[in-house]
Amino acid sequence: xxxxxxxxxxYHKIDWHLPAISSSASAHSMNRDLFVLTxxxxxxxxxxxxxxxxxxxxxxDKMGYGIGIRLIEDFLARSYVKKCxxxxxxxxxxxxxxxxxxxxxxxxxxxxxxxxxxxSLILDKNPLVEFVEELPAGRSSLCYCNxxxxxxxxxxxxxxxxxxVTFLQDRLKGDKVTxxxxxxxxxxxxxxxxxxx
Amino acid sequence: PALxxxxxxxxxxxxxxxxxxxxxxxxxxxxxxxxxxxxxxERLPRGALAFxxxxxxxxxxxxxxxxxxxxxxxxxxxxxxxxxxVLQDNNFPLLTQMAWGQQYLEETPKFLAFTxxxxxxxxxxxGIESSVTxxxxxxxACKFQVVIQKA
Lengths: 197, 151
Hints:
- Chain A is an alpha+beta fold.
- Chain A is built from five helices and five strands, in the order βαααββαββα.
- Chain A has a four-stranded antiparallel sheet with strand order 2-3-5-4, with helices on one face.
- In chain A, a hairpin with an 8-residue loop joins β4 (163-169) and β5.
- Chain A is globular.
- Chain B is of the alpha+beta class.
- Helix content of chain B is 46%, strand content 15%.
- Chain B: Pfam families: TRAPP.
- Chain B: InterPro entries: NO_sig/Golgi_transp_ligand-bd, TRAPP_component, TRAPPC6/Trs33.
- Chain B: This is Trafficking protein particle complex subunit 6A.
């Protein structure tokens, strides 16, 4: 429908009703590809910015932390979670609800029998590395998915839990599995936290 | 799964992180978007990309790309039928994270740079070279202007 008159002679406004979005399957795969590709572009850019693998890893962790402290709110808003009474329950929640929600995968959980606060997430599939067959040349110490460690750490901190989160094994480095280790540290005392305010 | 949310979190972490502003950071963001756009288009089934004319390709951006990335479609499309297209989104999801109000207008370029690159990259992989710029009149509405480069 073109407008008569000369207000904007160089533009025709197209008044049209878009048909329904094309099949949800293709929209979903585009959405997923977008996320995977964007993560890849992030890592590639960081590799340009930083020569040392260690620096890239640290930056990924730091960015992840910044995401984690905001993501926890989104997570709690989206999921009905009952109060957790143990580190084991929390780790299960991370693996079965959070990972499922944001990455579409469910890592399996193992725990270190000799200590009550060490757990591992074993990632069988990992969308972040879907298009990555091996680490870039000269980047043998790169923790490609280190962002995830920061996210977990940041999210936990916002619910008053401190933890060390690192990759213990990485398929991209030639290990058999990809394993994220979570070691819960001393719990921040709630009372102390409130007093700081 | 909320992969769309995951992308959104990732995207906003770019903005608030070390690419905080300045000419170079906008180029970096746009460049990242470009590579992602190319990758996206390359992964689409060939059948989905049989566009008869340029306008159909742009409509694909407005409908399918926007739908997959932003869970909505653009609100308006204008063209002069001479290679310039303006895509309007009245409620652009990557801007709604910003505070509403004029005072943050100067911050908007970094929120839009990646998407400009995304559009340019998608078009490039579909055989169309273009330049893409974005502007915000008032949050959270924005316009993306696509100018097709003629050979």
